[in-house]
Design a protein that fits this description.
mainly alpha; 2 helices; elongated
Length: about 70
């Protein structure tokens, strides 16, 4: 049982680290888009993809939190 809890805590830490990295990527993409005079469609699509990844990771963290409570 203790081994499962160690693995779960390690995976939670990895997930939170991924969320932080993805958040930084989103902010970087947003600032790049704001500073661009004529941003290309690729940059806009890249931002949408990064935001979708960030939202997915947040959703996974929320589900993980609900599982550990119940």
């Amino acid at each position: 049982m203790a081994k499962k809890q160690k693995i779960r805590k390690k995976e939670e830490a990895n997930l939170y680290q991924l969320i932080d990295l993805q958040k930084q990527k989103c902010f970087r993409q947003e600032s790049l888009l704001e500073r661009s005079i004529d941003p290309s469609e690729d940059v806009r699509l890249q931002l949408k993809m990064e935001e979708a990844k960030y939202r997915f990771l947040l959703r996974e963290a929320r589900v993980l939190k609900e599982r550990t409570k119940g």
